[in-house]
Write a structure and sequence with these properties.
This protein has one domain (about 1-250): Maf protein (Alpha-Beta Complex). Helix content is about 25%, strand content about 25%. It has 7 helices and 11 strands. It has helices at about 35-45, 70-85, 120-130, 165-175, 185-190, 205, 210-220; strands spanning about 1-10, 25-30, 50, 95-105, 110-115, 135-145, 150-155, 155-160, 195-200, 235-240, 245-250. Helix 3 (about 120-130) crosses helix 4. The longest helix has 17 residues, at about 70-85.
Length: about 250
């Protein structure tokens, strides 16, 4: 099941408006260097530019007692706020930022898996994932710099891995394809490579930007997503299919 945790500004979702007549149309700025997020936005037909979320280093931050969902939402918001400092405020900029965590059930905070820092960590991470199930939590923040309206949410997808041999893992680690990826892998790449992976939820959530949840939210900010898969629906798939359902949870995030 793919759940969505939604956190809004105090005024609520109805407060999000498109640009009034006579004002510039919203411009989307992606505060991320991820080529996969840029690719997903391009596939959805979302015009955007890229900025740097300077000063936010995940490796220097700790979640404390925050839940995984609250933590990844906080990381996304920190990056959006940092990106907002780099855009011109005389227009109507909307900043989009995201972060992703993989979560192994039953391990508490020790089950949080971000981006591996080196080949040894990548090898250990992939070995922990194979033959089991984990959650993928992409946190996303949208922030209109001029109005101060924000939308911060977390999507959920479940991924199940089959067997992956040590030899396959070693070859993969040597390739360097694990770099910059939460959990050390990209769903589309690993399925294309023939790895036994099934998932329940939006595949773009697992790839770092939940387009089915993001599309309607972009529309509330006056930004159009014209590509397929941006209508808020769910999906399942992988090496074999399954069923999927979704629901929206409301929450207040400070």
């Amino acid at each position: 099941m793919a759940d969505t945790l939604l956190a809004m500004s105090p005024a609520g979702p109805e407060s999000i408006q498109t640009a009034p007549a006579g004002r510039p149309e919203p411009t989307l700025w992606l505060a991320s260097r991820s080529p996969r997020r840029r690719e997903l936005l391009n596939e959805a037909g979302v015009a955007h530019a890229v900025i740097e979320a300077a000063g936010v280093d995940d490796s220097e931050l700790r979640p404390g007692r925050a839940s995984p969902a609250s933590w990844v939402a906080a990381l996304a918001w920190l990056k959006a706020a940092a990106g907002a400092d780099a855009v011109a405020r005389d227009q109507q900029p909307v900043v989009l930022a995201a972060d992703t965590l993989c979560v192994l059930p039953g391990f508490g905070m020790r089950g949080l898996l971000g981006q591996p820092g080196d080949p040894d960590e990548a090898r250990r991470t992939i070995r922990r994932l194979r033959g089991g199930r984990h959650e993928v939590l992409p946190g996303v923040a949208l922030y209109c710099v001029r109005t101060g309206v924000r939308d911060v949410f977390v999507d959920r997808a479940e991924v199940s891995w089959g067997a992956v041999s040590d030899a396959e893992i070693d070859l993969y680690v040597v390739s360097g394809a694990w770099r910059g990826k939460a959990g050390g892998y990209n769903l589309r790449e690993r399925i294309d490579a023939g790895w036994s992976i099934e998932f329940d939820g939006d595949p773009t959530s697992i790839m770092g930007l939940p387009m089915r949840a993001l599309g309607p939210r972009l529309a509330r900010f006056g930004i159009e997503a014209t590509g397929p898969g941006c209508d808020g629906g769910g999906t399942s798939g992988g090496s074999s299919g399954g069923s999927s359902a979704g629901r929206v949870l409301r929450a207040d995030v400070a």
